[in-house]
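Retry 2 of 3 after timeout on previous attempt. Resubmitting structure tokens to design endpoint.
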């Protein structure tokens, strides 16, 4: 994992892009409901493993942990906490996991989560992989 730049020195806000890019693995699929608030869905690839991560972003420190942390040390800790939340699988395990009826994945059952889950399964069943960044409108058109 890359060390985060200390943006507190320049008074710049941290973004989830800063966190995600620090992971040093390929971002295969990314779906962002909204930059200001909503869920962010990710599929990562690190060699032969695939990782899933869902984050919730908000517009205030109460609803968004990224805005809550006020020191560089706290932000680095949060970076490591996010990395620890990534669930890693082989390709086959990931497909099986997403096709199963796993109750812990409540965020995968809303409209956007269901569409992203379908996109991940379709992506993993391909023979070739590349990066695909989806916005809400593009995802809906792709599923049709």
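Retry 2 succeeded. Sequence:
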């Amino acid at each position: 994992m890359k060390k985060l730049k200390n943006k507190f020195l320049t008074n710049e806000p941290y973004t989830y892009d800063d966190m995600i890019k620090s992971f040093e693995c390929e971002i295969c699929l990314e779906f962002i409901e909204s930059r200001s608030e909503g869920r962010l869905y990710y599929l990562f690839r690190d060699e032969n493993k695939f990782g899933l991560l869902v984050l919730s972003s908000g517009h205030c420190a109460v609803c968004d942990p990224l805005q809550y942390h006020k020191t560089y040390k706290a932000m680095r800790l949060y970076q490591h906490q996010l990395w620890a939340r990534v669930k890693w699988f082989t390709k086959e395990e990931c497909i099986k996991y997403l096709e199963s009826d796993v109750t812990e994945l409540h965020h995968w059952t809303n409209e956007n989560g269901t569409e992203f889950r379908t996109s991940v399964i379709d992506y993993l069943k391909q023979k070739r992989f590349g990066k695909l960044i989806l916005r809400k409108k593009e995802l809906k058109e792709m599923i049709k």
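Attempt log closed. The first strand starts at residue 26 and ends at 32.
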